[in-house]
Amino acid sequence: MTSSSSAVSAIETTKAGAVAKGHAPIEATRVPADVVRCWPYEVDQAPVLKIGQVVDELEAEFPALTISKVRYLEDAQLISPYRKGGPQGHRRYSRAHVERLRYILTRQRDDLCHLQAIGQTLSELDQGIADETPTVGPQLVTNNGELVVNLPNDQLLSVSQLAKRLGVSIAQIEQVVTARIAAPDAKGRFDARTAQVVRLALEISKRGIPLRNLRSVSMAADREAELISSTARLHTRGAGQDSCALGLEIAQLVSALHTTLLEKAVVSDC
Hints:
Helices cover 54% and strands 4% of the residues. By secondary structure, the chain is mostly helical.
């Protein structure tokens, strides 16, 4: 029996014991009868959180996370919030939903995993047939209590390895390179950040924006990087601080600002 199945059995056994003793089952007054439980089963399934609270919960680990992103993952059928009052009711999320989102976002960020592959793993976890059960809970790297930027590992991928990892063709990756949005190293290998650029560019192109139009986004990022790097060097000079770490911190803030401004502009045109 898998650990997720064991967790389900433990929960049901606890509930049965509570009923036998004349007490209300655990969560009975909090979890509606029509809630569809999901992995991780050992985490509270009560739908008490609004979507904004979910984003607030995860933003320290994933600064670029937005309400739109959560809804997109719902559309991709990776998460199914409870609908209060019926199918068209307000979304409500449980602690289990938060951990499920954390798992999805971590796999995307650290493993460059395609949503289809993540969905397959989640389906196996929901059914209790997964080979391994991931650890739930925050996976933060800290230094003296302060959040440290979680840099990708040093793994380098060939174009064929990257194609397999992303679930795309080599020709699609070459199109991104030809559009000068991303480039491999001198040996034709892709590091984690470049691989992420390729993945995002292809995801955007699938939604109707030609790759050639994303060249301006790449050029704008290069200009912003120059400003951020020079600012970081200026503010850390003689202070014994790491200019790279400060630069990455500023970059995350600029990215979050850009996302917010872009979403605001798009919503205003809807």
